[in-house]
Design brief:
Layout (H helix, E strand, L loop, with lengths): L10 E5 L7 H11 L3 H14 L4 H13 L5 E2 L5 E5 L8 H16 L4 H14 L2 H14 L4 H13 L3 H14 L4 H13 L3 H14 L4 H13 L3 H14 L4 H13 L3 H14 L4 H13 L3 H14 L4 H13 L3 H14 L4 H15 L2
Antiparallel strand pairs: 1-3, 2-3
Helix pairs in contact: 1-2, 2-3, 3-4, 4-5, 5-6, 5-7, 6-7, 7-8, 7-9, 8-9, 9-10, 10-11, 11-12, 11-13, 12-13, 13-14, 14-15, 15-16, 16-17, 17-18, 18-19
């Protein structure tokens, strides 16, 4: 079963206004800043039709194409947005069109460092980390102290599990642009993967100081609060993340964990339910909500949720064990024994499951 992990995501920066050329170009950029990405794409289409060798227009249209397909977060309140890596289907028509725009921008102006950098970001999305490193490196050569190029190259190193190169580039990004909130957040994610939680916490906090509307930073810091058993602080951070993005299913899951840790099962169930509404195939949310129902003694709802998890992931033996336990809670030892048998088929020879099965069968015969 897929688990929600705080270090599973990385964030890429999308600076939508890389300079102003005036007139129609200025208008197209303003549409980007206003969040009207389809309108911006059409505006850049018009510019390119009139001036087909305008490399900057291709670059910005490529970025607008990305922004139109992913959830964006305003960082400095004006020009900078971020998207969570992995949200963009790198094989989608929009991603391919963005890649083609960056290719054209590079062909028209090989010295345009930004085009190399953003093509590197898309290469990361494709999982082509070596090519991404090559493009990002070229961007750093064409524009010295270019923080975003180091950030994108760090993402590629992270994809290759080269932690030391990844951290080196995040440090350079921060050195070259101390106001780059995404660099702090990504460095925090990298530190968290290495269980350097103090450093991760400091980086998330700095990202929040630089960009108070940066929802993911609150979410990941909230997770660290939860690991510290500072559940009220965790809930406060998750709530702030949800204020900024009410459709963040993972944040609802995280906040539910914190409520559950405090023994507040009703609030936990409510948050799991919201997560499920946003992502009806989230087996983790069903599984955790079932556990909260079970802790309340509501075995019927627990069994219903475990059954939904099984429908989503029928090969997970642990869920059959949990549903069996819920059946036992309501005294239905025959159904419990049936689930233990299935769990044992999925995990042959497991002594604990065998013992649970024998106990359930004995109780079923005794009724």
């Amino acid at each position: 079963m897929k688990q929600h992990l705080y270090a599973a995501a990385a964030l890429c920066v999308l600076v939508l206004a890389g300079g102003c050329a005036g007139g129609p170009y200025d208008h197209a950029v303003r549409l980007c800043v206003a969040g009207d990405f389809p309108g911006a794409i059409r505006a850049f289409d018009d510019i390119i039709e009139r001036a087909p060798k305008n490399a900057l227009a291709y670059l910005q249209r490529g970025k607008a194409r990305i922004a139109s397909r992913v959830k964006t977060y305003p960082v400095d309140g004006k020009f900078t947005f971020t998207w969570i890596s992995g949200e963009l289907d790198a094989s989608s028509e929009d991603a391919e069109a963005a890649f083609a725009d960056f290719d054209t921008a590079i062909e028209l102006n090989p010295g345009l460092a930004e085009a190399w950098a953003y093509r590197a970001a898309l290469l990361c999305e494709r999982g082509d980390y070596d090519a991404a490193i090559e493009d990002a490196t070229l961007a750093t050569r064409k524009k010295s102290k270019y923080a975003l190029a180091y950030l994108f190259r760090a993402l590629a190193y992270g994809g290759k599990n080269d932690f030391w190169s990844e951290m080196s580039d995040y440090n350079r990004a921060v050195d070259f642009d101390p106001a780059c909130a995404a660099a702090y957040l990504n460095r925090g994610l990298a530190n968290a993967r290495k269980s350097e939680r103090g450093s991760a916490f400091a980086d998330y906090t700095r990202a929040i100081e630089l960009a108070p509307a940066y929802g993911p930073a609150y979410k990941y810091r909230g997770y660290l609060y939860w690991l510290r058993n500072e559940h009220d602080n965790a809930i406060a951070d998750y709530s702030r993340a949800l204020d900024l993005d009410p459709e963040d299913a993972v944040a609802y899951n995280y906040r539910a964990w914190a409520h559950e840790s405090k023994g507040d099962f009703d609030r936990a169930i409510n948050d799991y339910s919201r997560a499920i509404l946003l992502d009806p195939k989230d087996a983790v949310a069903y599984n955790r909500r079932a556990g909260a129902y079970e802790d309340k003694g509501d075995f019927d709802n627990a069994i219903a949720d475990y059954s939904r998890v099984i429908a989503l992931d029928p090969e997970d033996d642990s869920v059959y064990n949990r549903r069996a336990r819920a059946y036992e809670g309501k005294g239905d030892y025959g159904s419990a024994a049936a689930d233990y048998r299935t769990a044992l088929l999925l995990r042959p020879g497991d002594a604990l499951i065998q013992n649970n099965l024998e106990n359930a069968e004995r109780r079923a015969r005794g009724r």
